[in-house]
């Protein structure tokens, strides 16, 4: 959801800046201003003295300006915090069977999963990231495969070995994973 909001906001801001900047550039180069443009020619100032001081004496003007700017600052801070927030799962709750629970560090599970997946045949490099909730973790696995490896076999080995071992050792009912596979760049082989 955050990714969609982020892209929509960036798109709206970018489109508004493109329209405004393009129209300023076009009017500055001598093109006739569009009908919605607030000025009439290339030598008009952005804010005249009359426009700048028009509502200065009104009692509603400054509270409205300050309120709108405060809302914009709060929205910008929320957006920044949401973008910078860590999406990595810090810990996983393991059911010990005695009514108590144990906490497993997320980085430890990521490391074990990455080392086991890295030991599979034809896997050159692995990157693992845990997401989700601590009672229902999910894995994002990025596999970099050697050129001779069949992706179907690599995926089967990953799910039946590494992911199943991680699910069983953490006592999870389900351990969904998103797997991305990439081929490792290599030099062309010489054929004789």
Notable traits:
alpha+beta; 46% helix; 19% strand
Written account of the structure:
The chain is 46% helix and 19% strand. The mean pLDDT is 83. β3 (123-132) and β4 (137-145) form a beta hairpin. The chain has helices at residues 2-28, 49-52, 61-84, 106-118, 151-170, and strands at residues 91-95, 101-105, 123-132, 137-145, 177-183. With 192 residues, the protein is α+β, with helices and mostly antiparallel strands. α4 (106-118) packs antiparallel against α5. The strands form two sheets. A three-stranded mixed beta sheet has the order 3-4-5, covered by helices on one side. Strands 1-2 form a two-stranded antiparallel sheet.
Shape: elongated
Estimated structural class: alpha+beta
**Cα distance spanning the termini:** 54 Å
Summarize the main sheet. 3 strands, mixed
Round the mean pLDDT to the nearest integer and report it: 83
Beta fraction: 15-25%
Helix content: 40-55%
Q: Going across the major beta sheet, what is the strand order? A: 3-4-5
Number of strands: 5
Cα-atom radius of gyration: 28 Å
User: Unreliable stretches, pLDDT < 50, 5 or more residues?
Assistant: none
Please, how many helices?
5
Order of helices and strands: HHHEEHEEHE
Summarize the helices and strands and which ones pair or pack.
Elements: H1 2-28, H2 49-52, H3 61-84, E1 91-95, E2 101-105, H4 106-118, E3 123-132, E4 137-145, H5 151-170, E5 177-183
Helix pairs in contact: 4-5
